[in-house]
Amino acid sequence: MFGNQTLYEFADAFTGHPVPASVLYQGVDTSKLSWAEQLWVDWYKYWGNPVIATGVMSFLLHEIVYFGRSIPWIIIDSMPSMRKYKLQPNKIPTAAEQWRCTRLVLLSHFTVELPQIWSFHPICEYFGMATHQVPFPSWTKMAWQILLFFVFEDTFHYWVHRAMHFGPLYKHIHKIHHEFSAPFGLAAEYAHPLEVLILGLGTIGGPFLLCAYTKDLHIITVYIWIVLRLFQAVDAHSGYDFPISMHNWLPIWAGADHHDYHHMAFLGCYSTSFRWWDHFMGTDVSYKKCRAREAEARRKAALETAKTK
Ligand SMILES: [Zn+2]
Ligand SMILES: [Zn+2]
């Protein structure tokens, strides 16, 4: 298909960005690298083209983490003993619903995201982000940068998601995501491709902004952030609230309890990770009343049970 060219050579010619490993790691003493950093170097050497190496890694990371994190929730949904932790226990997703969800998510990944494989690395480089470089930044630097990304994404998502509930935007774009009034893990990215693109800006916009200002960001930090963000999104749609769930010991964390209500009621609780925007903007009043009523009903039921014993 490509004549005498190998696939790698074709990719190099296509991206116009061939950088041999000998140039990429010239002067780097790889004997001093950690195990993870060595793997990183091997990956970039294997592809021999940083554009393809970064693009493929980004795409695979998303697919593996998104679907990998959804599997435990599919298993939990099949276990009747877990129903007591389900926020809407009468609404368990059927296999057909899960399959419908998987199909749309894959369609969106392959149409919206796959083409970005070719552009992600150049955009990162444009903003001055370190990609193939080693060593990695320190854990402390990664931690505060990721915390900033969480805060930025949560703020972006609150306002843009709230705007998505405005008449025409809801009707033409966001309505698809609300097809399931009782969400489940796989439904996290069940949305109009345009919504995936727009709300995705909240996830990737923070790193690009920080990088543009500081020129001090490594793509490994962005990958760790994306993994955590995917965990947050899938778990928030799981529909389960366990006693050990994060919001029970970190009250500012939104979690499934918060987002499940958004799907159930269609309004309020617009944030992703934290509860402060909904609290300060008063968009969680009905949620708080609903949970208070449920707690009161549980208290009365427990009293009745105690009396009959
Ligand atoms: Zn919504
Ligand atoms: Zn949702």
Write the layout of secondary structure elements.
Elements: H1 7-15, H2 21-24, H3 35-47, H4 50-77, H5 95-113, H6 117-126, H7 139-164, H8 167-172, H9 193-214, H10 219-236, H11 246-249, H12 255-265, H13 276-281, H14 285-308
Helix pairs in contact: 3-4, 4-6, 4-10, 5-9, 7-9, 7-10
Characterization of this structure:
This protein has helices at residues 7-15, 21-24, 35-47, 50-77, 95-113, 117-126, 139-164, 167-172, 193-214, 219-236, 246-249, 255-265, 276-281, 285-308. With 309 residues, the protein is mainly α. The chain has one domain.
Compact description:
This protein has 309 residues and is mainly alpha-helical. The chain has helices spanning 7-15, 21-24, 35-47, 50-77, 95-113, 117-126, 139-164, 167-172, 193-214, 219-236, 246-249, 255-265, 276-281, 285-308. The mean pLDDT is 90.
Number of domains: 1
Distance between the termini: 78 Å
Helical fraction equals: 55-70%
Spans of at least 5 consecutive residues whose pLDDT stays below 50 are none
Number of extended strands? 0
Overall pLDDT level: 90
Portion of residues in beta strands equals: under 5%
Radius of gyration, Cα only, in angstroms?
A: 22 Å
| Alpha plus pi helix count | 14
Element-level helix/strand string: HHHHHHHHHHHHHH
Category from helices, strands and their pairing: mainly alpha
Largest sheet: none
Bound molecules: zinc ion
From the spread of the alpha carbons, the general shape counts as: elongated
Protein name: 4alpha-methylsterol monooxygenase
Subcellular location: Membrane
Keywords: Membrane, Monooxygenase, Oxidoreductase, Transmembrane, Transmembrane helix
GO cellular component, one term: membrane
